Amino acid sequence: MGIKKYDLIIVGGGVLGTFHAYHAIKSGLKVAIVEKNSQPQGATVRNFGQVVPSGMNTKWQNYGRESLDIYKNIQSQFDISIRQNGTIYIASNEEEVQLIEELYQINKANGYKSELVNKEFCLNKYAGLRSDYCKAGLFFPEEVTVEPRVMINKLHAFLKNEHNLEIITNQTIIHADETNNGVKVITALGYEFLTEKLIICNGNDFKSLYPEIFNNSDLVVSKLQMLQTKSQGNYKLDGSILTGLSIRRYEAFEECASWKQIKAKEEASSFEKKYGIHILFKQATDGSVILGDSHEYAVAKNIDDLGFDLNMDIDNFMINEAKKIIDLPTYEIQNRWFGMYSQCKNSDIFQHNVSDNIHIVTGIGGKGMTGSAGFAKNNIATIINKNTNIITNE
């Protein structure tokens, strides 16, 4: 029996790799994903579970808006846990009100639907929202939430059943070489495959393939802590709720005229600054509420410095801040975890061409769940067409 051959092999079955596979299949290619675990276990399943183009700069908002259309189209054919329940940013003071008013005008100019809503609207729509916290809100009705621990596996099932995607699990590719017949890849278990092109969407696995490239890159890894309450019973909280600290952190607001002036007034040594904390709420389908999150950083070659422990001071700070915002029936925590994602210091995504047919695409940062589907559509077209205009980090 000969070596199995594909038009494209994707290394990594997370959301970025999977949507590269999706768009390649739609272009008529024979595609396989090689996933080192039995199912994805990285940032794709350890995130907050929101698709929020509203939080991104104009370039990535466009990718995110395209992603929304892709998610909704797939959901119309196969349940991958997408719920269109909107995103709201809650302003807690006049500075944050100014920022959401400015972002509203930016989105109006960009043709992206948003609605400025007053305090009364917010208090009526979001049960338990504290009157002494909320001043106003900016609502994005088109945005969706997902169940991250469910979505990627359902998406894989859809692509296998409906589009003949092959997913090879529990295999780590440790070697790749260009040959006269294509790219030959070898797994740690000794399996060999042949492909015309190889795309490496490896999240923060910087040790299996081309470690020297990652060690010499500007990639950093971010560790995020999140919490999950016990079920809230009959209490309902629709959509994603992002708060004042989110307004002060998300890159979309950097395009606002008053951003720099407002940021300059912030206390640089505060606990929330040190750990990159902003407060988000999202109710899961089991009635629990997900709270997050924080950010700690290490360069790619020092990823182990981030450790595997949870910082309880961060968790306690997030819970105390959340209680100032929404009175939930219970803040009893049933689950705590952290996720890690990679991003670049000096660019918005890491792309490196190892050769004409071996491409590294990673470091999408916190944009993965929102931006991957739209970005991958454009990037696959570029790679398939052998367009040389790919931005590379050498």
From TrEMBL:
<dbReference type="InterPro" id="IPR006076">
    <property type="entry name" value="FAD-dep_OxRdtase"/>
</dbReference>
<dbReference type="InterPro" id="IPR017741">
    <property type="entry name" value="FAD-dependent_OxRdtase_HpnW"/>
</dbReference>
<dbReference type="Pfam" id="PF01266">
    <property type="entry name" value="DAO"/>
</dbReference>
<dbReference type="InterPro" id="IPR036188">
    <property type="entry name" value="FAD/NAD-bd_sf"/>
</dbReference>
<feature type="domain" description="FAD dependent oxidoreductase">
    <location>
        <begin position="7"/>
        <end position="377"/>
    </location>
</feature>
<keyword id="KW-0560">Oxidoreductase</keyword>
<comment type="similarity">
    <text>Belongs to the DadA oxidoreductase family.</text>
</comment>
<keyword id="KW-0285">Flavoprotein</keyword>
<protein>
    <submittedName>
        <fullName>TIGR03364 family FAD-dependent oxidoreductase</fullName>
    </submittedName>
</protein>
